[in-house]
Design goal:
heterotrimer; A alpha+beta (977); B mainly beta (85); C alpha+beta (184); A: 977 residues; alpha+beta; Ubiquitin-like (UB roll); FAD/NAD(P)-binding domain; 6 domains; seven-stranded mixed sheet; six-stranded mixed sheet; 28% strand; C: 184 residues; Gyrase A, domain 2; Alpha-Beta Plaits; 2 domains; five-stranded antiparallel sheet; 3 helices; 19% helix; globular
Chain lengths: 977, 85, 184
C-alpha cells in the first residue's frame, strides 16, 4: 500500500493502468512493480516449472519473478521485468505462465508432483521411445514450462542502432559512477555515463543517508546537474551496458520508447549502442543475495534493499507487518527505514550472534528464518532461535544474505573473479580486463563513502593511464561504517528451499546434481538449469555454487563460479539487428537503366546487390519464357540491347601494369596490343578458377579489366592484395571505375548497323575488329566501344559516363526496336551464353580448374602467375576429372534441371556412382530443344555417349547425349562477321 | 574489435576484411611442399599471430596485423606494402 | 532516326530532400571528380597540384582547399580533385581517372547531423577526432563511403552512384528517428 508521504513519485500526476484486465492507478515515477505493490497485489506471476504463485522480489534488473507481458497484439512484449518497466498512463500488462488465471492455474498440479520434476527429470524420463521426444514430449513440456510467448506477428516497432565514442565510459550512475564522471568530466575528457534507471543516482535514490550534508537523492541530483553542465559529458539514462568486446567496444541497450504511452512512429523502442571508449569505469554496483530456506519463494519474501527502495523511493509498503532477516548490516538499515516510514516491523532477525541494535523492535540475534507460510501471500515467518522455534505473523519478509559485486562485465574478456573472504563473495579479477576499472560496489566497496572515493580513484587512474592531468576532486562526506557479513547461504530444514526463483531450482536440485557427479559448476548449471533463466541467476548464482561446494566438500572459492557472458540483461534481437529490416537489409545497387526498365514492366532479379531486369514483357506475352524466347530470337536475328554496367571494371595503370596482369591472369596480357581486348582467366593460388573477363589495353601502361558482376568486389580485393603484398615493389595503380561508366551490350546481326547510325561512322572489321576497342564520341561526350560478345553474335559494348546511361539506353532500345529488336534481360542473356557454352559462376563455382573447363591451354608456360603451381598438381590435371561438356536430351522434349546428377545408364542413381552434374540449363529457342552445360568425368572423351540425368529433388530423369559445350556456330564466325 | 590503420587511425572491425595468415609466398612455379604449406597448412599459435587485414571499406590498404590469439590484443599494425615495417 | 541526343542525369534529383529537427538532407550537384594516383613518388604531384590548382597535397584524412577547387585524401595512394578539370600538367605527375559519374554526393547539415551519422557509420565523429575539414573513407550502412566534415554541423557523404537511393533512404530513416526523440 502507498505511504501517505515521501518518495520520489509525483503525486500530482496519477497514472491509470491495467493489469490482467483490472484497472489500477499509480503515480508518475512509479515502476509497474511499485504501482502493483501500491495497489496491494501480492502475486504477480507463476513460476517457470512448478507454477507456484510468485511476488515481486527485487527492485531492479535482477528480478526473477515479476515478469509480465506488456501491451497487446503484435506489440505484446513477453518477459518484461515489472521492476524495470516505468509506469505510464494507459499501460496494459498481463501476468504470464498461468492458465486460466493468476489465482487459479491448472498447471499448479506440477507443484504437487514436484518430487518427480527435480533436476534431470526430463533427461531421465523422456528418453524412450526416441521418436516421441520431438513430437510428443517436447511440445507438452514446452507448453507446461516456460515464460511469456512472442506474439508470432511481425514486429511493428522501430529499432535503432548507433555508435558512440568517448574517452571514459562510466557504467552505472550510483555514488561511484557519479564521482567517476565528475572526476573525469572536470578533467575535460569525453565522458559517457550510462545508467539503466530513468534517473541517475543508483542506490542513493533509495537511501535515507546524508551525502555532503544533504539527502542522498538530492546530492545525486546536484551531481547530475553539474555533469549536465559539462559539454564533454553525456549522460545516457535507461541504458544498460550489456557486454564488453575487444578493443574497448561496449554494447549498450537504451530503452528509448518503452516508457511512453504515445510513441511517434519513427521513435525506436530500443537503441543498441556500440560505445567505443579508451577506458571504462565499471560502477555497476552490487546485487543483494537472498538466503534459501523452506518455501522462501512465497509472495512477500523479497530482498532487503528492494524493500528499502519501495519504501524510500516509491513510498510503498509491501506489507503491513514486515519481518527483516539478514546476516549483515543491510537488514538493520532496512528495519530502521521501515520504522522511520511508519511501517510496523514484526521482528529483526540477524544470523550473527554478536549483532546488536538500538532500534525499538523485537530483535533476534543469532537466529535464522527456517520457513514461511502463505501460498498467495506471506502469513507467518518461523524462526529458529537459541530459545527454540518462534513464529511471527507477518505479510512481508525482507531478506539480506549479503552483497555480490556486479562484476559480470569483467568476465566478458575472460577476467576470472577471485574469492574474498571479507565480503564472502567474489571480487573482479585484478587484471585481465583491458581498460576496464571496477569501482564502488562492483569492486566490493559497499559503504557509500568508500564507493564515492573508489569511483573518484578509478577515474583518476583512467585519466593517468590516458595521459591526462587529474584535477583535485573532493569526495563528499558520507556514511562510512564498514561492511560486515557472516556467510549464510541456506538454512537447513525440511521441504524445498529455492535458489533460482526464475528457473525453479532448489537446494535439493543442486545436491542431486552433485550426487550424480555433476560437480563442476558448469555441469551443475546445465543439469539443473540454475542461472539459465532471463535473469541469468543474478540473485542465485553464488548461493547455488556455495550449496554445490557444500555438497561436494569444497568451499566456494574452490568450487568457483560459472562464466558470465554477454548480455548482462536480455537484449531484444530486434535491437541487435536494428536497421536490418526491409530495405535496410542490404544496399540496393541500381543501374542507370533501372527506372526505364521498370517503366517497361521488367521484373527485377537480384545479382549480388544489383537489381537487373529479368526480361521485358510485351503485349500478348503471358509467361517469362515467351518473353525470353522472343528476346533470344531478337538477338540472333536482329539486335538486342542489354545493360551490362554491373560487370566490374577496374582501371589498371602504372609502369608495371602489363607485368601485373601477366601475374594475376593465367594468360598473357603484356603482349596485348593497344586497341585490343583479350579474354582472361584468373586463378586462385590453389589453382582453381576465381573469375574470368575481358581486359582491354587502353595505352602503353593502361589497361581496363572487366570482372563478372558476382566477383567484382572479390577480384578488386584480390588485386589489391597481389599489388600490395605479393608485388609491393611494382608500380601498379588500381581503381574501380565500375560506377563511372554505363555500359550496354548491343548484340545481333544488326548491331553494327545500329551503332554506325548512332556514332555516324563506319565500324567495319578493318576499323574495329572482333576483340578490339576504340574511343568514340556522341556529340561531345566521349565513350568507349568494345567489340566483344557474350552471345556469340556480332556484338559490341558501348560505354559512356553514367550520367548519360538512362538517355543512351532509352535511345538504343528505341533504335533496336525500329530494327525488329529491343531490350533483353538476364534470362535471355543466360540462354544466349549457354547456347554458346560461355561461362558464368555457375561453372566457375570455385571447385573447377582451367583444365576442367577445357581452358588449360590458356595457362601460359612463359611467365609466372598466381595459381600456376597449384594448378600443376597432378590431381587437378587428371583425365577422369569432372570436365565441362554440353548436354542435350535424347528423344522428345525433356527437362534437364540445373543441379541434377549424371549417371551411366544402368548404374544405380546414388552418390557413389555419380559421373557429374548439370550447372546451367536453358530452352534454346534457336535450336528448339533444351541445352545444358555440366561437368562429367572424362567429359571431353565421351562426346556422343549417352548419359542418364537424375534430379532427385524434382523427380526428373532424362536421357542425355554428351556433346561439345557449344551448341551454335562452333567456328565462331558470327562475332567475327 | 578495432584495428589501427596506419593511414586512417583506429577503426571499427567492420571496415576490414581478413586476408589470412601473413606467410611468405613460395614463388616457385612447380608444386612442392613449400606450396602445400603456403596454401593448406596453418599454425594455430596460442599467442602472437601475424595476419593480413585489408581496410576494404576504408583506404584499401592491406595491413600486417600482429595479434595475441589468447587475449585478442592487437600488438601492432603496419602497411603490408612497406614490408610490414 | 533523329540524331542521338544525350541527357545528363544526376544519380538523384538535386536539392533538399528533407528537413527535420533543423537538419537537412540535400543532394548536391555533380562536380568534376578526378582520382589522382601518383604512384611511388607523390612529390611531382604535390608540385603540380600547387602550381596548377593552388592546392596542397592533402595528408591522410585531410582536405586541401583552393578557390573553386578542393583535393581530398581518398585512400592509400589516391587523391580526389573536386571541382575543376585537371590541368594538363597533372597527367605527368599522376594517373588521372575521371570519377565524376561514379559518386553521388549528399550534404547532411544541422544540429542533428552528427547524431544521424552516428546511426549509420562507426566513425568517431567527435570534433576532436574528426574536425571540420577532415575526411574519411569508411563504411556507412554497409556501403563504402567517403565522409567529409564541412563544418561543426555539416557532413558531406559520398557513396557509389548505384547506391544513392539507399543512402537517401538510410539518412532519411535515421534523421526521422533522431528527430522523433525531440518530440517526446
Amino acid at each position: 500500500m502507498r505511504l501517505s508521504t515521501g518518495g520520489q513519485i509525483d503525486r500530482s500526476r496519477p497514472l491509470d493502468f491495467r493489469f490482467d484486465g483490472v484497472a489500477y492507478s499509480g503515480y508518475h515515477g512509479d515502476t509497474l512493480a511499485s504501482a502493483l505493490m501500491a495497489n496491494g497485489l501480492k502475486v504477480v506471476g507463476r513460476s517457470f516449472k512448478y507454477h507456484r504463485p510468485r511476488g515481486i522480489f527485487s527492485a531492479g534488473s535482477e528480478e526473477p519473478n515479476a515478469l509480465v507481458i506488456l501491451g497487446a497484439g503484435a506489440r505484446a512484449e513477453p518477459n518484461v521485468r515489472a521492476t524495470m518497466q516505468e509506469l505510464f498512463a494507459g499501460l496494459e500488462a498481463r501476468s504470464q505462465n498461468r492458465w486460466p488465471s493468476l489465482d487459479w492455474d491448472v498447471m499448479e498440479v506440477n507443484d504437487l508432483v514436484a518430487d518427480f520434476l527435480g533436476a534431470g527429470f526430463y533427461y531421465k524420463t523422456f528418453m524412450w521411445p526416441k521418436a516421441f521426444w520431438e513430437k510428443l514430449y517436447e511440445p507438452v513440456i514446452r507448453r507446461a514450462a516456460g515464460l511469456g510467448a512472442l506474439s508470432g506477428q511481425a514486429d511493428p516497432d522501430a529499432n535503432e542502432k548507433a555508435f558512440a565514442h568517448c574517452d571514459l565510459l562510466v557504467i552505472g550512475a550510483g555514488p561511484a559512477g557519479l564521482m567517476a564522471a565528475l572526476q573525469a568530466g572536470e578533467a575535460g575528457v569525453d565522458v559517457i555515463l550510462c545508467d539503466e534507471d530513468r534517473t541517475p543516482g543508483g542506490s542513493l535514490l533509495s537511501s535515507t543517508e546524508d551525502v555532503d550534508g544533504m539527502a542522498a537523492p538530492d546530492w545525486a541530483a546536484e551531481a547530475v546537474a553539474r555533469l549536465e553542465a559539462m559539454p564533454n559529458v553525456r549522460i545516457m539514462t535507461r541504458t544498460t551496458v550489456t557486454g564488453v568486446y575487444d578493443g574497448g567496444t561496449y554494447g549498450a541497450l537504451e530503452r528509448v520508447g518503452r516508457h511512453l504511452q504515445h510513441r511517434p512512429g519513427p521513435l525506436p523502442v530500443d537503441c543498441f549502442w556500440r560505445i567505443v571508449a579508451k577506458r571504462a569505469v565499471l560502477a555497476a554496483g552490487a546485487l543483494e543475495r537472498p538466503v534459501a530456506f523452506q518455501d522462501n519463494d512465497r509472495p512477500g519474501v523479497m530482498l532487503s534493499s528492494a524493500l528499502r527502495a519501495y519504501v524510500n523511493r516509491y513510498a510503498v509498503a509491501p506489507g503491513s507487518s514486515v519481518t527483516v532477516f539478514g546476516n549483515n548490516d543491510d537488514a538493520h538499515r532496512t528495519a530502521r527505514d521501515l520504522l522511520a516510514a511508519g511501517v510496523h516491523v514484526a521482528g529483526l532477525i540477524d544470523a550473527r550472534h554478536e549483532a546488536t541494535t538500538d532500534l525499538d523492535l523485537p530483535f533476534y540475534p543469532g537466529a535464522v528464518v527456517s520457513r514461511v507460510t502463505g501460498r498467495m501471500g506471506l502469513e507467518t515467518v518461523s524462526l529458529r532461535t537459541h530459545k527454540g522455534e518462534v513464529k511471527l505473523q507477518s505479510d512481508c519478509l525482507a531478506v539480506s544474505g549479503g552483497w555480490n559485486p556486479s562484476l559480470h562485465l569483467t568476465c566478458h574478456l575472460n577476467g576470472r573473479p577471485v574469492w574474498d573472504e571479507g565480503i564472502a563473495s567474489f571480487l573482479p579479477a585484478p587484471e585481465g580486463m583491458p581498460g576496464l576499472i571496477p569501482a564502488g560496489g562492483a569492486a566490493g566497496h559497499f559503504p557509500t563513502w568508500e564507493a564515492l572515493e573508489s569511483g573518484r580513484a578509478a577515474a583518476a587512474r583512467a585519466l593517468e593511464e590516458m595521459g591526462h592531468a587529474v584535477p583535485h576532486q573532493k569526495v563528499p562526506e558520507a556514511e562510512g561504517a564498514p561492511y560486515s557479513v557472516k556467510a549464510l547461504w541456506h538454512v537447513p530444514g525440511k521441504g524445498r528451499a529455492w535458489l533460482d526463483l526464475a528457473n525453479d531450482v532448489t537446494v535439493k536440485d543442486v545436491r542431486t546434481a552433485a550426487s550424480e557427479n555433476f560437480r563442476s559448476v558448469e555441469h551443475m548449471k546445465r543439469y539443473t538449469t540454475q542461472g539459465m533463466a532471463p535473469d541469468q541467476g543474478k540473485t542465485s548464482n553464488l548461493s547455488a555454487m556455495a550449496v554445490l561446494g557444500d555438497a561436494t566438500g569444497r568451499d566456494v572459492a574452490q568450487t568457483g563460479i560459472t562464466t558470465y557472458r554477454p548480455p548482462y540483461v536480455p537484449v531484444p534481437i530486434a535491437a541487435m539487428g536494428a536497421g536490418g529490416k526491409g530495405r535496410g537489409f542490404a544496399p540496393e545497387r541500381l543501374t542507370t537503366s533501372h527506372g526505364r526498365s521498370l517503366a517497361m514492366n521488367a521484373p527485377m532479379i537480384e545479382a549480388g546487390l544489383w537489381y537487373r531486369p529479368s526480361y521485358f514483357p510485351r503485349a500478348g506475352e503471358k509467361t517469362w519464357r515467351q518473353s525470353c524466347d522472343r528476346e533470344v530470337s531478337m538477338v540472333r536475328q536482329s539486335v538486342g540491347i542489354a545493360d551490362v554496367s554491373t560487370l566490374g571494371k577496374i582501371d589498371i595503370q602504372g609502369r608495371d601494369a602489363g607485368a601485373f596482369l601477366d601475374f594475376v591472369y593465367a594468360n598473357t596480357f603484356s603482349t596485348l596490343k593497344e586497341g585490343r581486348v583479350r579474354y582472361g582467366l584468373m586463378l586462385r593460388e590453389d589453382g582453381h578458377v576465381m573469375d574470368d573477363g575481358t581486359t582491354a589495353r587502353l595505352g602503353p601502361q593502361h589497361y581496363l579489366m572487366t570482372t563478372t558482376t558476382a566477383a567484382a568486389g572479390e577480384v578488386m580485393g584480390h588485386l589489391e592484395f597481389a599489388a600490395q603484398v605479393l608485388r609491393p615493389d611494382w608500380d601498379v595503380r588500381l581503381i574501380s571505375v565500375t560506377e563511372q561508366w554505363a555500359q550496354f551490350a548491343v548484340a545481333g546481326p544488326q548491331s553494327r548497323a545500329l551503332l554506325e547510325e548512332v556514332l555516324g561512322r563506319d565500324l567495319g572489321s578493318d576499323v574495329l575488329p572482333f576483340m578490339g576497342w576504340m574511343p568514340v564520341t556522341i556529340g561531345d561526350v566521349g565513350g568507349r566501344l568494345f567489340r566483344i560478345s557474350f552471345s556469340g553474335e556480332l556484338a559490341y559494348e558501348l560505354a559512356l559516363p553514367a550520367r548519360y546511361g538512362e538517355s543512351l539506353f532509352t535511345q538504343l532500345v528505341k533504335r533496336a526496336e525500329a530494327r525488329g529488336g529491343g531490350a533483353y534481360g538476364m534470362e535471355a542473356l543466360n540462354v544466349l551464353r549457354i547456347e554458346k557454352g560461355l561461362l558464368t559462376h555457375a561453372e566457375l563455382h570455385g571447385r573447377t580448374t582451367a583444365f576442367d573447363l577445357g581452358l588449360d591451354r590458356m595457362m601460359s608456360r612463359k611467365k609466372a602467375f598466381i595459381g600456376q603451381a597449384g594448378a600443376s598438381r597432378p590431381g587437378l590435371l587428371a583425365e577422369d576429372r569432372e570436365r565441362l561438356v554440353g548436354l542435350r536430351p535424347v528423344g522428345a522434349v525433356q527437362m534437364i534441371p540445373a543441379g541434377a546428377f549424371l549417371f551411366n545408364e544402368g548404374d544405380e542413381a546414388v552418390r557413389e556412382s555419380a559421373q557429374g552434374y548439370v550447372t546451367s540449363t536453358a530452352f534454346s529457342p534457336t535450336l528448339g530443344h533444351t541445352v545444358a552445360l555440366g561437368f562429367l568425368k572424362s567429359g571431353p572423351d565421351r562426346i556422343g555417349e549417352r548419359i542418364r540425368m537424375v534430379d532427385h529433388l524434382r523427380g526428373v530423369v532424362t536421357l542425355c547425349e554428351v556433346c561439345e559445350p557449344c551448341f551454335l556456330d562452333p567456328e565462331g564466325e558470327r562475332p567475327r562477321a | 574489435m578495432r584495428l589501427t590503420c596506419p593511414l586512417c587511425g583506429e577503426r571499427d572491425l567492420r571496415e576490414f576484411t581478413y586476408r589470412g595468415a601473413a606467410l611468405a609466398r613460395p614463388e616457385g612455379e612447380a608444386w612442392g611442399d613449400d606450396w602445400h604449406d603456403y596454401i593448406h597448412l596453418r599454425d594455430n599459435p596460442a599467442g602472437e599471430s601475424r595476419e593480413y587485414w585489408a581496410h576494404s571499406t576504408g583506404c584499401a590498404a592491406v595491413l600486417l596485423v600482429t595479434r595475441d590469439t589468447r587475449t585478442h590484443e592487437v600488438l601492432g599494425s603496419a602497411l603490408a606494402k612497406g614490408g610490414g615495417a | 532516326m533523329p540524331e542521338l541526343t544525350l541527357i545528363a542525369q544526376n544519380a538523384l534529383p538535386q536539392g533538399v530532400v528533407t528537413t527535420l529537427a533543423g537538419t537537412r538532407i540535400e543532394v548536391l550537384p555533380m562536380r568534376r571528380l578526378t582520382a589522382l594516383m601518383p604512384g611511388p613518388d607523390a612529390g611531382p604531384l604535390a608540385e603540380a597540384l600547387m602550381a596548377q590548382h593552388g592546392l596542397g597535397l592533402p595528408a591522410p584524412g585531410a582536405v586541401e582547399h583552393a578557390e573553386q577547387a578542393e583535393c581530398l585524401w581518398f585512400g592509400m595512394g589516391q587523391y580526389l580533385l573536386v571541382g575543376p578539370a585537371p590541368a594538363p600538367g597533372l597527367a605527368e605527375a599522376a594517373t588521372l581517372t575521371d570519377q565524376s559519374d561514379a559518386w553521388a554526393t549528399v550534404l547532411l547539415e544541422g544540429p542533428a547531423a552528427r547524431d544521424v551519422l552516428a546511426r549509420l557509420c562507426p566513425l568517431d565523429l567527435r570534433a576532436r577526432a574528426f574536425a571540420p575539414g577532415a575526411t574519411a573513407r569508411t563504411e556507412l550502412a554497409h556501403m563504402a563511403a567517403s565522409v567529409t566534415r564541412t563544418g561543426p554541423d555539416g557532413f558531406r557523404v559520398m557513396v557509389f552512384r548505384s547506391m544513392a537511393e539507399t543512402l537517401l533512404h538510410e539518412l532519411r530513416a535515421a534523421l526521422e528517428a533522431v528527430a522523433a526523440r525531440g518530440m517526446v
